[in-house]
Specification:
The chain has 3 helices and 10 strands. It is mainly beta and 199 residues long.
Amino acid sequence: MPLVRLFYLPLFWALAGCSIPYQTPEALRQIERDLQLVHGSVQALARTNWCYLPYGSGSGGDGQCHAVQGLGVLSGDGLILSTYSEGIYERFMTLKTTDVQCIKVFRDRDAPASFFVFTRELATQIIPLTDNGQFDTSTKIRFLDYLAGQSQMSRINSDRDYVRENGKINSLVSTIPGTKITIVTTIAATEVFNPCPEK
């Protein structure tokens, strides 16, 4: 049975309506203050959507995207994925070069496509965007160059590179539109796994 396709390239379109201030000097000062960054340490900044996927079905790694919209802030502290709510920037997670085991890219390093970062705990798909909601390739390259460090970077050929069946079955119950007829469908349950070679 084929695995459920888990490419979340449409994720950035679904979340593109994000309105987070970050372009003015005042916003940058607040970002530095709220995220407790040294003044002047921000190296790259972009609207960024991400999807985090824990490993294994027992820890929520069922292959379902936990989509978040916010900012990607590259600083001396690492790549900070930050949310913005009620006028406050908050760290959601910080990815450091030392945490990264491997990176997988769609197509090529310079292609306008998202990429996956794999750490010991989870996989994170990162989608940097321009102000008008288009993919931000130049910021992607800056994020990648920082995160890659000594890590292995390779292409994603399919979702089988990081998702596998876990031996369980999920049942989906639906109704035929316009009727009261119920249909039960079963599909193989999946889980995200860490595809990186051990360091």
